[in-house]
Amino acid sequence: MGKRDWRKLDESDVRVRPGKGTRPRSKRRPEHADAETAMVIGVDRGRWTCAMESGAVVTAMRARELGRTPVVVGDQVGIVGDTSGLPDTLARIVRVEERTSVLRRTADDTDPFERVVVANASQLIMVVALADPPPRTGFIDRCLVAAYAGGLEPVLCLTKSDLASPDSLLALYTELDVPVVVTRSDEEPAALRARLTDTVSCLIGHSGVGKSTLVNKLVPDANRAVGVVSGVGKGRHTSTQAVALRLPEGGWVVDTPGIRSFGLAHITPDDIVKAFPDFAEAAEECPPGCGHLGSPEDPGCMLDELVPDAPGRLASLRRLLASRAGRDDHAD
């Protein structure tokens, strides 16, 4: 104490250094004004492959300030650090831009955890074989629901038309005005190529329908594995993760793993009806909680009054609603 009288000290004379847990943390985060824009084209074990606007392809990690912000194929992101794309270099993703569309699914209709398949795609190409394996309309309906709810334009791509006619299947979707592309295994997919050029499109379908074969024709250096159909009519999974591939003519195609089911637990009936402007206004007058399936399931549904005006289109819409509700016979 020296010559000072300790009895005259008060609390203002005592200096206490706060512990690490009590220090106020700044909520300010770096703005990263110098971040370069890139598109995520692949994800693998905590590393993201990104295509820069300059054409370079870089590997990046998620910056700490992003926390657990999900980053998926198709996301537009801001990147800092080494963006040269040279071997053994690593950049950082510091920003994820707002998404224009999102394709989501759940494992099944009771799973509360939704999985983002791809972001910012403008089209969902539903690849369906006309034979070997036979088409499953329930799967098509569920993909349509996910596309409408996520802001993507659905396109029906029918493969193996050399084995079966598409007419009976197409008749089911006439009222929905879904664009259709028909391909054969022994011909180049010229019509599909033209539709994909200068867009970001997502291909989805069961294993064995010819999706990887199409990708190999569209992107010759893709080298996607091609599988065969099993004896029970279900294909083997040949693509193990979603990946965006640059098209020679411009644009991107996102190839997704072959899936056996498409859960829609995250989508409500209103999400589906909003994609149909001719029905959306009437649906706003429906009772709370209406599933829009009509009587007897949903008494008081205002869409019933539209049946005389658009019977075929309303029937198609309600088939999609039934698919979402798990009441279809071919959900997988």
Keywords:
332 residues; alpha/beta; OB fold (Dihydrolipoamide Acetyltransferase, E2P); Rossmann fold; 3 domains; 6-stranded mixed sheet; 5-stranded mixed β-barrel; 7 helices; 22% strand; flat
Structural commentary:
This protein has 332 residues and is of the alpha/beta class. The chain has 3 domains: 36-96, OB fold (Dihydrolipoamide Acetyltransferase, E2P); 102-225 and 238-255, Rossmann fold (3-Layer(aba) Sandwich), CATH 3.40.50.300; 269-325, no CATH class. It is 18% helix and 22% strand. The chain has helices at residues 137-150, 167-171, 190-196, 211-218, 269-273, 277-283, 311-324; strands spanning 36-44, 47-52, 57-62, 76-81, 91-96, 102-106, 114-119, 123-129, 153-159, 180-182, 200-204, 243-246, 252-255. The strands form 3 sheets. A 6-stranded mixed beta sheet has the order 10-9-8-11-13-12. Helix 1 packs across helix 7 (311-324).
